[in-house]
Amino acid sequence: MVGEARMVLVTGATGGIGTAVCHQLAGSGYPLVLAARNEAKLKTLSDELTGDGHVWLQLDMTNDQSIRQFGEELAARRITLDGVVLMPPQAHSTNDPMPGADAWRALFQNCFIGPLEVLKAAIDRMNPDPVNGRRAKIVIISGISSAQVLGRYATSNVLRCAWIGEAKTLAFALGARGIHVNTLSLGGTLSPWYREGIEKRADAVGITFEQRLAEETANIPLGKYGEPAEVAVAVEGLLSRFSDHMTGLNIMHDGGFTRSY
C-alpha cells in the first residue's frame, strides 16, 4: 500500500498487460491516469478499478495531435504525476533486417518518437522533492531483444535498444531532480494476444495448447512464460521505495531466458 496519494500514469492501459498493471496499482492505493486510444474501454476499465481518484484520457501515441492534446489536458487538470508506466507501441514481428526508409520512419515515429513526446509531457507534470523523500519513478516496458538479438524481431531489436539508450540518458539527466528511469524488458508473457498466437501455432501442427506451451518454454530455466499479473507486481516494485537507489537499469523479466550477463 502507498502511504499517500501518488498518482501514476499508465499508457496502453486497456491492453492485456496494461489492464493487469492498472488493477495491481489501484488495489495498492495508487490513483491512476489511464491512457489509451479507445474511450469506451478506458471508461469500462476506470469503472472496474478499486479506489478513488482515477481519471482517463484518450491518447494515440502514433498521432502528434493526440499527443499534444494529451499534454494540454494533463496541464489543464493540474495533474501532478509521481510515476509513469510507459508502454510504447510494438513493432510487428519480422525477419527483415533492412526494411525500406519509409518503413523505418514510420516505425521510429510510432514506436519511439511519439511515445517519447508523451513521456516528455508526463515529466513536465512531475514535481519530486527528494530532500523530503518524494521521488518520481518512470518504468518503460520493453522486451528482451533489448539485451540479445532475436531473429524474428529484426526491427524490434533496433527500437528496443533505442529505448535502452534513451532510458539511460534520462536517468543521468533527471537523477538530480529525484526522477528515476528504469526499463522492464519482458520475455514471453501470456497476455491474451500472446495466448492466441500459441493457440494458432498449436493448431497448425495438430497439438494442444499445453503441448505447444511446454515446447516453447523448454529452453527457459523457470520452465514457463510470464503472466501479466507477474509483470504488474514487478512494475509496482519499480514504482515503490524498493527502487529508491535504482535508476538507469534494464531489468529482464523472462524466467532466466536471456543468456547475456
What topology emerges from the helices and strands here?
Elements: E1 8-11, H1 16-27, E2 32-36, H2 39-48, E3 55-58, H3 64-76, E4 83-86, H4 101-123, E5 136-143, H5 154-174, E6 179-186, H6 192-205, H7 209-216, H8 228-239, E7 250-253
Helix pairs in contact: 1-8, 3-4, 4-5, 6-7
Report on the structure:
The protein has helices at 16-27, 39-48, 64-76, 101-123, 154-174, 192-205, 209-216, 228-239, and strands spanning 8-11, 32-36, 55-58, 83-86, 136-143, 179-186, 250-253. It is an alpha/beta fold. The chain has two domains: 8-189 and 227-253, 3-Layer(aba) Sandwich (Rossmann fold), CATH 3.40.50; 192-225, no CATH class. It has a seven-stranded parallel beta sheet with strand order 3-2-1-4-5-6-7, with helices on both faces. Helix 3 runs parallel beside helix 4, helix 4 runs parallel beside helix 5 and helix 6 crosses helix 7. The longest helix has 23 residues, at 101-123. It is globular and about 55 Å long. The chain starts with 7 loop residues before the first strand and ends in an 8-residue tail after the last strand. 39% of the residues are buried. The model has no long low-confidence stretch (mean pLDDT 96).
